[in-house]
C-alpha cells in the first residue's frame, strides 16, 4: 500500500470516527465487484442498446417491449449476484453509527445494499424490484420474480413499467428531499463508486460541501478506482476497489 493511501486511510478513519452524521452516496461501482456492470463501462449491459432507447420516456413510447426486454434481462442478472464486502461494510457501519446518524443515498437500482442489511436507504433512481402502473399509479414490490412481455397491473390490468427514473424524469420528490437534507446536515459524506456525472444526484456532493448549508462544510471522502467529477470537491481520496475494506478495518468495524 502506498504512503499516500495509508495517510488518506488514516485521515478518513479519523473523520468518520468523529462524524456526528454521515451521508453516503453510492453508485454502480459499489456493485461492480458483485458482477453488476457499471453504466459507463464499455462492457456494460447498455451495449447494443442506445441509452435513450431503453432509459428514457421517449424510448418507452417508441417501443415498450424493447424496454421491458432490457429490464427482464437486468432483473435476471441481479438474481445471479450477491452483495460484496463493500455492501456489507456499509451495512455494518450503519449499525455502528445508528440509523439516525447515517443515511445511505444510492443511485443503484439493484437493491443489494438492502440485501446486505442496510436499512436507511434512499433509492434516488428507483428499483428493478418494483413496477409502477401507468393507469392507477400503484407501485408494487415484485421482488425479482421472472416476468415476461409487457406485464399488466394485477389491480386494474393497466400497463406496468419498471419503477426506474429514466433520463429527463423527476426523481421521487420525498426521496430527493430526504437526500438533500441528509447531504445538507451531514458532517461527513462518503462518495463511493460513482462517476458523479448524473444530476441531480451528483449535486448532493456540492450541497455537502456548502451549497445552501447552515452548518460548516461537510468533509467529503471519495472511494473510487479513478478520479471522477467529484474529485475536486473531495477532501480525501481513497483510490481502490470499494470491496477492499482497509478503511473499515481501521475503524474496527
Ligand atoms: C468503482 C469500482 C469499484 C468501478 N470500486 N469504484 C441534457 C438533456 C436532458 C437531461 C439532462 C441534460 N443535461 C443534464 C440532464 C439531466 C440528466 C443528467 O444528469 N444527464 C447527464 C448524463 C448529463 N438527469 C436526469 O435526467 C435526471 N432527471 C432530472 O434531471 O430531472 C429534471 C429534468 C427534467 C427534464 C430535463 C432536464 C432535467 C434523471 C436521471 C436518472 C438517471 N438514471 C440512470 C439510468 C437508470 C436506468 C436503469 O438503471 O435501468 O441511473 S442513468 C445511470 O447513471 C443510472 C445510474 O444510477 C446513474 C449514475 O451512474 P453511476 O452510478 O455513477 O455509474 P457510472 O457507470 O457512471 O460510474 C461508475 C463508477 O464506479 C466509475 O467512476 C468507476 O470508476 C467506479 N468503479 N468499479 C470503486 N470496484
Ligand atoms: Zn393499476
Structure description:
The protein is an alpha/beta fold and 253 residues long. It folds into 2 domains: 3-35 and 82-124 and 171-251, Rossmann fold (3-Layer(aba) Sandwich); 45-80 and 130-164, 2-Layer Sandwich (SIR2/SIRT2 'Small Domain'), CATH 3.30.1600.10. Helix content is 36%, strand content 17%. The protein has helices at 3-18, 28-32, 51-54, 57-62, 64-79, 85-97, 112-116, 173-185, 203-208, 246-251, and strands spanning 22-26, 102-106, 121-123, 126-133, 139-141, 160-164, 188-192, 219-224, 236-239. The strands form 2 sheets. Strands 3-2-1-7-8-9 form a 6-stranded parallel β-sheet, with helices on both faces. It has a 3-stranded antiparallel β-sheet with strand order 5-4-6, covered by helices on one side. Helix 7 links the parallel strand 2 and strand 3 (121-123). The longest helix is centred in the N-terminal third of the chain and has 16 residues, at 3-18. The structure holds ligand BJW and zinc ion. The site of ligand BJW has 32 residues, from helix 2.
Main features:
10 helices; 9 strands; six-stranded parallel beta sheet; binds zinc ion; 253 residues; 2 domains; 17% strand; 36% helix; single chain; Rossmann fold; SIR2/SIRT2 'Small Domain'; alpha/beta; three-stranded antiparallel beta sheet
Amino acid at each position: 500500500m502506498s504512503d499516500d493511501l495509508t495517510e488518506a486511510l488514516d485521515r478518513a478513519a479519523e473523520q468518520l470516527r468523529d462524524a456526528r452524521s454521515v451521508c453516503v452516496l453510492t453508485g454502480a461501482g459499489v456493485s461492480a465487484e458483485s458482477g453488476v456492470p457499471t453504466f459507463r463501462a464499455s462492457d456494460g449491459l447498455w451495449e447494443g442498446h442506445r441509452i435513450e432507447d431503453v432509459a428514457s420516456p421517449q424510448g418507452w413510447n417508441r417501443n415498450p417491449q424493447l424496454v421491458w426486454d432490457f429490464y427482464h434481462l437486468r432483473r435476471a442478472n441481479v438474481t445471479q449476484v450477491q452483495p460484496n464486502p463493500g455492501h456489507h461494510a456499509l451495512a455494518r457501519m450503519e449499525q455502528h453509527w445508528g440509523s439516525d446518524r447515517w443515511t445511505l443515498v444510492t443511485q443503484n437500482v439493484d437493491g443489494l445494499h438492502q440485501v446486505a442489511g442496510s436499512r436507511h436507504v434512499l433509492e434516488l433512481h428507483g428499483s428493478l424490484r418494483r413496477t409502477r402502473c401507468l393507469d392507477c399509479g400503484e407501485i408494487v414490490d415484485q421482488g425479482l420474480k421472472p416476468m415476461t412481455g409487457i406485464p399488466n397491473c394485477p389491480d386494474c390490468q393497466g400497463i406496468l413499467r419498471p419503477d426506474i427514473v429514466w433520463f429527463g424524469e423527476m426523481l421521487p420528490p420525498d426521496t430527493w428531499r430526504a437526500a438533500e437534507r441528509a447531504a445538507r446536515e451531514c458532517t461527513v459524506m462518503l462518495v463511493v463508486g460513482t462517476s458523479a456525472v448524473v444530476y441531480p444526484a451528483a449535486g448532493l456532493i456540492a450541497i455537502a460541501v456548502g451549497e445552501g448549508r447552515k452548518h460548516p462544510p461537510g468533509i467529503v471522502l471519495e472511494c473510487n478506482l479513478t478520479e471522477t467529477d467529484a474529485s475536486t470537491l473531495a477532501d480525501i481520496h481513497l483510490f481502490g476497489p470499494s470491496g477492499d475494506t482497509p478503511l473499515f478495518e481501521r475503524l474496527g468495524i
